[in-house]
Amino acid sequence: MRDNGTKNILLVGVGGQGTILASKILSEGLLRRGYDVKMSEIHGMSQRGGSVSTHVRYGEKVASPVVPEGCADVLVAFEKAEAARWLHYLKKDGALVVNDFEIYSLPVLTGAAEYPEGIIERLKEKVQKIKCVDAARLAEELGNIRAQNVVLLGALVKALGLEGPDWKSVIKETVPAKLLDLNLKAFDAGLSQ
């Protein structure tokens, strides 16, 4: 289900984690590298901590913005339970970049459900190319946990083999000036993973 060598990336997380901002930086960076890029956002009660997914497809000529199930070259999960929830989108030899981070849903917080145990271990049994990143810890060490999205973006860029100076200029043009230094450091932290 690929057209003209199109690459498929799915970014998933929980509302408020910065999934969409990371996707916008990714899309702009890919456009500047000369790719045709299509992006589609899906918000599922994102303001209340619900699932958020962003499909990014790039290549010579991209027809649709939606990544078909089983066709994602890379799945980036901003929260580990979301990795398990969206894993069926990853193709057999695809790569998984997963944030080793937990966000508890309302049923878990109220005691009506339990957060699943051993998610990372189960993911490692199913996916050969997996990169676990403690993006929240890295972002906190830099001064703000909210920068974990840009840490994960750096890890994704490395996984795609698309390192280069263009990314920092896109970040400079996208994030507020007061958060620029933090986000540039967060991107570098992700690249080093």
UniProtKB/TrEMBL annotation:
A Pfam family: POR
Protein name per UniProt: Indolepyruvate oxidoreductase subunit beta
Enzyme nomenclature, EC number: 1.2.7.8
Coiled-coil region: none
Taxonomic classification: Bacteria, Thermotogati, Synergistota, Synergistia, Synergistales
SUPFAM superfamilies linked: Pyruvate-ferredoxin oxidoreductase, PFOR, domain III
Annotated source species: Synergistes jonesii
Example GO molecular function: indolepyruvate ferredoxin oxidoreductase activity
EC class name: oxidoreductase
Keyword list, A-Z: Oxidoreductase, Pyruvate
Domain Pyruvate/ketoisovalerate oxidoreductase catalytic: 15-191
Oxidoreductase in keyword set: yes
Domain of life of the source: Bacteria
